[in-house]
Structures are given as C-alpha cells and as structure tokens.
Amino acid sequence: MHDINLYEKKMISDVEFPVQMFVNRIEKPGMYCPPHWHEHIEMHYLFKGQGTFHVNQKPIPMQEGSLLIINSNELHMGISDTINMEALVIIFEMKSFSKEVAEYNVIFKSLIEADQKLNDLCTEIYEEGEQKKLGYKLAMKGMIYELISYLLRNYVVESQSAWENTRRNKNLKRLNTVLQYIQDHYNETITNRELADLIHVSEYRFCHIFKESMGQSPLSYINEVRLKKAYSLLEQKTMTISEIASIIGFKDYNNFGRQFRKYYGFPPSKVWEM
C-alpha cells in the first residue's frame, strides 16, 4: 500500500521571521517536487536552468529570471527540465504579514517574467540569507514586505471570496480519500459512482470536483496510475506484456497497448529494450 497525501502542513514557528526560505539546487532533470497543496503562498524565483511547474494541472514553463507564485490551496508539482536548476523558494502565510490583506484572499498572477524590480528584490533577499550578517532577518523581512506590496499593486488577478477559498480547501481534502482508494484498487473496475460515494456527493458533482482539482477525468487519472505501474513492472522484465496488462486492470490487451503508446509515446515492448 502506498499512502497518498496531497496536503502538506507547513510549520513556521519563528515569530521574528515567519517565512520558510531555502534554495533548491537540482542536479538532474525530472520531478523534484511531488504533487501537494497547502494554505501558504509559495514563490519560486529561478536563478539558473529551466523547469516546468504544474499548478492545478496547468503546465507553467520557467526560465532564468522567472518568478512563479503558487497561491493558497493550489495543487502543484515541480519538474526540472535541465541538468542544473537553482531556485530561491519563499513560503509564508499572508496573515503573518498583513491580516487585512489576508482577508481579501487575493490571487496573484502565476508567472511573472522580465520584471527587473522583482529580479533585484529576489537577488537581495537571497544574498541576505546567504551572508547572514547581523540583522539579516530584519532586512529580509523588510524586503519581503516590499516584495508583497509590489505584487499586490501590480500582479493581482482576482480576489477570492472566503466561501470560495473554503470550498477549494474542502475539495482538496476530499480528494485524498479518493486518490488513496484508487491507489489501493487501481487493478479493479472502479466506477465514478463508487468514488462519489466515498465523499458522499452525487456522481455529477464528484466528476466536476475531480476535473476542477486534477485537470482530468477520474478514468484518465486511473489509467495514468495503471500505466505508471505497468512501466515499473515492464522494467523488471519478469512478466509478459499481456500478463502485466491483466494485472494492472486492463481487460483488453489491445486497449492497453493503445493507452500506453498514447501516454508514453512508444509501445510497451520498447521498455524491455531500454
């Protein structure tokens, strides 16, 4: 059994500096930040390399000088597209800096590029954090205040109601139950009705919640889980392709082949040749 938990609890206990900040240095291409969500705001400023973030299932390409903003309650994951990627990560709760602004539930623009003001601020924040001179937390806190103020005045795309914010939070929590069930039963026949019953909503409502949060239909996600498992089993080279297709829940061998080729871009047999 593989536990699924999209929710990530952020604990920031430093009252003087209520921010989690670190530099991600990724040395090889691939996923380095698995899918998760939290109530905090998360920013990634890319110093080096290229990457792709998926925010609410929408791919957002990043290059040097890009600032990615992940708003509260947004499902996201990160992929490095280059051998060396380096990014400054800043995570905080808006209410730690301004309760008044936090009540507006503002939604920032997801990707900001070619803004020299932001480039300078992120570089200065990074340098303060690296050098750690006397009073560096105070200096960084002031810069983050300036960063937030600048974003509020230039890059707010909408203001989310408290009801909408609560609704999205609730739906993401519900999905943990559904995704865990799929992970445990992917090799069985799973219906939308069955999944809807897990979170006590109608089938129509369930499909809407799932598509809104995951960016794909429940069946598409189930097949994705099956195909990833198939790839792993193919790499072991201990079973035939037809045996693997049956084990992971595909009753039609030809359909398995079509779905595998569509998802990976090559037939299952090619995995044995790698």
Question: How would you describe what is shown here?
Answer:
It is a single chain. The protein has about 270 residues and is of the alpha+beta class. It folds into two domains: about 20-160, Jelly Rolls (Sandwich); about 165-274, Homeodomain-like (Arc Repressor Mutant, subunit A, Orthogonal Bundle). The protein is about 45% helix and about 20% strand. The chain has a five-stranded antiparallel β-sheet, covered by helices on one side. It has a four-stranded antiparallel β-sheet with strand order 2-7-4-5, with no helix packed on it. The radius of gyration is 21 Å and the shape is globular. The two termini are about 30 Å apart. The model has no long low-confidence stretch (mean pLDDT about 85).
